[in-house]
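Task 17 of the worksheet. Students: predict the tertiary structure of the chain below and write it out as structure tokens. Keep your answer in the requested format; marks are given for formatting as well as content.
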Amino acid sequence: MQSCLTCFEPACRAQFDINEVIYNCPKCGGLLEAQYDTSGIDAPALKRTWRERRMSNAPLEQSGVWRYRELFPFLDDYSHVVTLREGNTPLLQSTRAAAYGGLANITFKHQGFNPTGSFKDNGMTAGVAQARRLGMKRVACVSTGNTSASMAAYASAGGLDPLIFIPNGNISYGKLAQALEYGAKTFQVDANFDQILALVRVLTERLGIYLLNSINPFRIEGQKSIVIEMMDQRDWKVPDWIVLPGGNLGNVSAFGKGLRELHSLGFIDKLPRLAVIQAAGASPFYEYMRDKGQKPFAAQGHPETLATAIKIGDPVSWPKAQLEIETSNGVVESVTEQEIADAKAVIGHSGIGCEPASAATLAGIRKLKLDRDADVVAVLTGNVLKDPDYIYRYHTGELKAPDGSTITPTFGNAPIVVPNDAEKITALLA
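Model answer:
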């Protein structure tokens, strides 16, 4: 198959060699996407092949990303792949969460089961493979947490030097600890995510370092595997809705691209509707889509939310996200800090758990008031242990929103201090 990078902008659509180290179109500045010749794809045969690969112990087949490599065949040599057995994440049911969201049933696609605990691993294995293919020695990213943990792990496993730039004081220690443990050189910058990304783009070009933020089109290709695996797990039955949190908007871009390709190639018979949920304090895409046609997209200068994974005011993938929302007849919504915290506690009480940003999905479902019998898959992007301090402060009534207001522990479960006395504890339990 022939592969190329293509400008996303309809008025341009310029094509470039798959080996060029570029992230935007050199002609018009638009985003890039990978494209392939898919004329030889046989959907029924590939469905059988992908199922058979689950029984193999070969590293590529054990990966929930590379198992589906025929739909993103940009590599000509799979020895470049670094796999930690990413993907393979479960579909989980919760009657408690469904009732909270006003649904009869809900399914969570839990990306927190990935090796470094977030959906970033699906994209990072692909991005690092391309970096190795290009002969890069150093890779870099700007991160509010999950990207840094993932890139550090995959780069180090692949013999590359990871360089991480994070907003000073705006990352949970659970995520920062991962980056440090995986050997990344970490720079804490006195600026927000969007300002640091502009800085790092200058540095990577100047020093020949490969950038692995979601503007990298190969990250998007890896993240497509999430929705491919989701459809495979559902025996190719398309849900009515797929709901996911929105930060830099790489995930909805990847999901939409993957779903459109699956539909055009005959793997699925329709497109689900996509819903993107943003935190109210970091919701430039929500505000743009709400007022679409009235004014151009505007970045949010000072995004604020405790859900740090989606604390982004200038999402680079918004043009792609807009296409996917419009193509799927989807929606964009925003939710408050209180709504996120309560939804997170409900998911936790279901025995599932997730990071704060993930809970925006359930909060959004509750706010959207979807049809009770709708078939809904909500994507949980990160593991419950990504931000344990948030959990403790919520349940003890100490969690405060960015504006200083206290978040009510509606579903609080504070620890109880008791004496070392069996009789008194027995009386308490009785």
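Marker's comment: The first strand starts at residue 3 and ends at 7. The first helix runs from residue 43 to 53.
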